[in-house]
## 1
Amino acid sequence: MEILRVADIMASHPEHERDPRPEIYGLGAAFTTDHYGPLIEASVPLVDCGFMHADAVYDVVSVSRGSFFRLDHHQERLARSCRAIRLESPMDREQEAEILHRIVALSGLKDAYVWWAVTRGLPPLGRGDMIDPKQFSPRFYAFASPFVWLADDDQRARGMDLVLSRERVRISPRAVDPRAKNFHWLDMQMALFEAGERGGEWAVLPDEDGYLTEATGANIFVVRDGVALTPDTGCLEGITRQSVMDLCAELGIGAKTTRIHRDELDDADEIFLTTTAGSIMPARSLDGRPIGGRNRPGEISIALHNRYWERRWEGWDATPVRYDLAEG
Ligand SMILES: Cc1ncc(COP(=O)(O)O)c(C=O)c1O
């Protein structure tokens, strides 16, 4: 089975054509605190704790063919992330949704990467009451930009070259809970640089005991004996990961969350990553060794990838973007 060249389809199919907008919106549109504008002009105050201390949670939802995918799931997760770090968003659910619709409408994009964050905001500067979350002023930021591909059509077609980090482990959930989608990225970014140095394209991180957690900005699945396995702890509960579980149920493929030790990877038949920014990304090698003896994507990975996009374009859990909001 051939993998669908989704980026090519986005670039050529009329239903993906961007609505005309002023050139300054080329990079996309943003909302910062209380106003809308071009992404290129958006900024964050230097003293925002999100910037200074990575004290923030965020989420990313995607738009394709003019519709959000699983917007409710993403909004629900952001609300959970806020609660997990004792942060109160300045926006309620309806206001948040309206901002997300409006930034996509302002960008005119039919395929978009839509990022939004709630930060701890401005600290009680010069006063000693950082012990009280109520003394901060949380802030809300959002932007919509052209769809982001963590792995492009060619990489997904031939399979990614993964590296399992030796130098880094994913931060302990007792230090920073990865289920609250947060700004702590250094472990994942350092593992990515290590992957580059070791001739790979993307990194996977174990925990202290050698069990897989997730990849940089993505969840990992290992297919063994026809069953798709994904780590049950130490990782973000990805919406694409959940979508893959749903697709497995539809396609009659076994799927489960479980512990997976690094030593078990030698008998993996297939490995793929999942994330909003790139969908389902098959791998061909791990640490320089071909996966499943093939050195190309496996059939289950390709079937899930193609089904994911077909189902999305059929309207699966889709919320059409309110492009009329660009006027208001
Ligand atoms: C650390 C991490 N894990 C997993 C994911 C995948 O989550 P989702 O499928 O909801 O995009 C992301 C997405 O950015 C992430 O940052």
## 2
Amino acid sequence: MKKSAKRFAKKEIVKMETGAAISRVSIRSMEGLIHLGAGDPDFDQPEFINKAVYEAMKASYTHYAFGGDPEFKAAIAEYYKKYGVDVDPATQVLIESGGSQAIFRAFGAILNSGDEILIMDPAYQGYRRPAAYFGATLTRAKMTKDENGLFRPDMDNIRAAVTDKTKALLICNPDNPCGSVYTQGELEEIAEIAVKKDIVVIADEIYTEYVWGGRKHRPIINLPGMEERTMVLMSFSKTFAWTGCRAGYIIAGPELMKIISAVPIGITGMPVPFQRAGIVALKQGWDFVAKMRRAFKERIEYFVPRLNKIEGVSCPYPEGAFYVFPDISELNCPSMDFSREFFHHEKVRCAPGTQYGPNGEGHIRFALVRPIEELEEVATRLERFIKDLPITAPQAYP
Ligand SMILES: Cc1ncc(COP(=O)(O)O)c(C=O)c1O
């Protein structure tokens, strides 16, 4: 019998969970499928940005740019000022090829084997494998629901979950999958915990541009005592619908940034022509962002009340990001079974709440990345599916 290649693998990789969700590529061809499983905006990046990539190549921006293009870093620092944060582009901005690489580098900078990193429950699933890779343990603080049914960080649970091994506390603000936008009070409490316990805060802020209902995005790095211990993770993926072009960055205090920059993942991963186009996007891309923002808002305003009309479904309005995370616990069906069967029966892809942690049970997540007509169709299919659901006998599923 052939020996498994696993014998060559780093022990953390052997231990890591494997098995990916059905990928975009493999399901693209399925007829009639409505894919609301992944947060990939259905807008194509505008032509003037595409052109900027080519223009940069023609202008010979095709060489090494050690440490990232300084003009791009300056444009990022300028952009982030809109949140009241003034950073030095040379020492406080690090270019990454997307939010995922920013996560990897941030974790790689601080996590030793045996360390704990505290995330919320539910939380974006992309933190799990990088933590495992570095031999760290993910711990979780259960979020609790507010009066609107929206999951929020729970300070008592956070305090209780911090141990002597906790190296960092990770927040996602605005939150994917839950849709909460952290209030000033919540951020202050988190900052107080971090300072008192002397831990790092990793603030995943990649949905910053999508905040609803007159709320404001507030960066935790701005609070007293936080600059020296905060890593802000950002991405162009959602802001400019650049999911395939891989652009992101980290903002941190200069001392922390020296450590983050020391993680040897090679020369800045984002291709130089795209960095140049990033400058154009940050200067001229805001009408495009406003267009996407309007569309996401309309979708939320249509879809949330529509979901709430379906028996057994209860869905709060998200305060930020472009996901909805309805509660289906009344249906008494495990969210994994529900999502799988919904996909098989009705060709709609959503994500089971348990993908984001045990506290996500009884929920499913829809990414509102299709137009309203398709969301109408999803609601119709969901209604039909739920009517036929063996509500009290989920084990009847194959
Ligand atoms: C909260 C959060 N962080 C990070 C990422 C990864 O971002 P990117 O696609 O830029 O790698 C995602 C992607 O969905 C996300 O939702």
